[in-house]
């Protein structure tokens, strides 16, 4: 009689199965990504200079608040909700602003939460193409969110073209401006974004001039669809530029004590540059509308010309159709029916009639 398996062997089998199940679950579960993977740079600035060393966000803020001077500048690139939560708890960021910073797709705006500012910038980048008449994309957009406090600046970027390394380097080379504090960083970011607007508008203006030349060329080959595509790209730029005017004006007018008086004049200068960009973008939209109307008018004229040609040839063809139709009837007493030269005479009359109509239409430029 075969022996039954012992309970010890059965429990060992179940134990091995449980271990395999745990290994499978751990293999399927996503590994947590550390915050350092999203941190582009973290610096501590005291008296206009950056302190040496590598800092975590908690060590950096502890250092600043222990010294009771300076500020922290942390740059993040597309963090998720879990990773930004630690920064939000350390600096006391408002949950609504944190949600906007994570999910992006925000309009340019300025919000105030107690002693903190939250500002959104839309960044743009010009996409180089061989010709504006064949381009599928001209403007690529991104976003920069800025949390501004008394002793910290936190920037959250979305998009691969909205880097702030140049801004950070320029500020670190200008200790007098950096000594002002976080407001100077916010101004430099705003100035950098608006300068990019000016650069992009200059390149788009060149594309529109080239497209305008093609529209009025004899065989330019620019379709209304391509102009509508350009209008869509200009609209993308307009959505980035126009809503930013009110936040910049509020910062220039003393909206919050976080922006000292000496920085407000800088924001007025940025607002002036933004006004220039806004006017150029409005002119782009009007010019593209004019080009669309010109293309549609050209198409209408071409269709009218085609209809005149079709009508002219139809009138010419009607002459032999009418004569042949009359002589095709089965009557005995037709003019010149039994004459030897009747057939050549009819053919000659048909040709003369067609030639006369052709000359008339040709003289009136229908053919």
From TrEMBL:
<protein>
    <recommendedName>
        <fullName>Magnesium transport protein CorA</fullName>
    </recommendedName>
</protein>
<dbReference type="GO" id="GO:0000287">
    <property type="term" value="F:magnesium ion binding"/>
</dbReference>
<dbReference type="GO" id="GO:0005886">
    <property type="term" value="C:plasma membrane"/>
</dbReference>
<dbReference type="Pfam" id="PF01544">
    <property type="entry name" value="CorA"/>
</dbReference>
<keyword id="KW-0472">Membrane</keyword>
<comment type="similarity">
    <text>Belongs to the CorA metal ion transporter (MIT) (TC 1.A.35) family.</text>
</comment>
<keyword id="KW-1133">Transmembrane helix</keyword>
<dbReference type="InterPro" id="IPR004488">
    <property type="entry name" value="Mg/Co-transport_prot_CorA"/>
</dbReference>
<dbReference type="GO" id="GO:0015095">
    <property type="term" value="F:magnesium ion transmembrane transporter activity"/>
</dbReference>
<comment type="function">
    <text>Mediates influx of magnesium ions. Alternates between open and closed states. Activated by low cytoplasmic Mg(2+) levels. Inactive when cytoplasmic Mg(2+) levels are high.</text>
</comment>
<dbReference type="InterPro" id="IPR045861">
    <property type="entry name" value="CorA_cytoplasmic_dom"/>
</dbReference>
<keyword id="KW-0406">Ion transport</keyword>
<keyword id="KW-0813">Transport</keyword>
<keyword id="KW-0812">Transmembrane</keyword>
<dbReference type="GO" id="GO:0050897">
    <property type="term" value="F:cobalt ion binding"/>
</dbReference>
<dbReference type="InterPro" id="IPR002523">
    <property type="entry name" value="MgTranspt_CorA/ZnTranspt_ZntB"/>
</dbReference>
<feature type="transmembrane region" description="Helical">
    <location>
        <begin position="341"/>
        <end position="361"/>
    </location>
</feature>
<keyword id="KW-1003">Cell membrane</keyword>
<keyword id="KW-0460">Magnesium</keyword>
<dbReference type="InterPro" id="IPR045863">
    <property type="entry name" value="CorA_TM1_TM2"/>
</dbReference>
<dbReference type="GO" id="GO:0015087">
    <property type="term" value="F:cobalt ion transmembrane transporter activity"/>
</dbReference>
<feature type="transmembrane region" description="Helical">
    <location>
        <begin position="310"/>
        <end position="329"/>
    </location>
</feature>
């Amino acid at each position: 009689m075969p022996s039954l398996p012992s309970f010890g062997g059965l429990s060992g089998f179940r134990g091995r199965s449980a271990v395999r199940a745990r290994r499978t679950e751990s293999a399927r579960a996503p590994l947590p990504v550390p915050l350092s993977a999203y941190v582009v740079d973290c610096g501590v600035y005291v008296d206009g200079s950056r302190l040496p060393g590598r800092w975590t966000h908690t060590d950096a803020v502890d250092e600043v608040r222990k010294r009771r001077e300076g500020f922290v500048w942390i740059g993040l690139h597309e963090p998720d909700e879990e990773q930004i939560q630690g920064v939000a708890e350390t600096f006391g960021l408002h949950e609504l602003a944190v949600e906007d910073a994570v999910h992006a797709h925000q309009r340019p705006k300025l919000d105030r939460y107690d002693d903190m500012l939250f500002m959104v910038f839309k960044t743009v980048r010009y996409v180089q193409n061989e010709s504006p008449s064949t381009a599928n994309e001209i403007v690529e957009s991104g976003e920069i969110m800025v949390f501004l406090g008394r002793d910290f600046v936190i920037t959250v970027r979305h998009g691969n073209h909205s880097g702030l390394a140049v801004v950070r380097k320029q500020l670190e080379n200008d200790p007098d401006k950096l000594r002002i504090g976080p407001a100077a960083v916010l101004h430099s970011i705003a100035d950098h974004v608006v300068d990019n607007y000016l650069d992009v508008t200059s390149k788009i203006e060149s594309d529109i001039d080239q497209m305008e030349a093609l529209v009025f060329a004899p065989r330019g080959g620019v379709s209304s669809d391509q102009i509508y595509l350009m209008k869509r790209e200009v609209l993308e730029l307009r959505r980035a530029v126009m809503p930013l005017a009110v936040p910049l004006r509020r910062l220039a007018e003393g909206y919050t004590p976080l922006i000292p008086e000496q920085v407000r004049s800088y924001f007025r200068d940025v607002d002036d540059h933004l006004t220039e960009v806004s006017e150029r973008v409005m002119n782009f939209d009007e010019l593209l509308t004019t080009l669309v109307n010109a293309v549609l008018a050209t198409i209408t004229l071409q269709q009218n010309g085609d209809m005149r040609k079709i009508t002219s040839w139809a009138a010419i063809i009607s002459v032999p159709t009418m004569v042949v139709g009359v002589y095709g009837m089965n009557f005995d007493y037709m003019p010149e029916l039994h004459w030897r030269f009747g057939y050549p005479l009819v053919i000659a009359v048909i040709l003369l009639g067609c030639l006369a109509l052709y000359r008339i239409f040709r003289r009136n430029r229908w053919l």
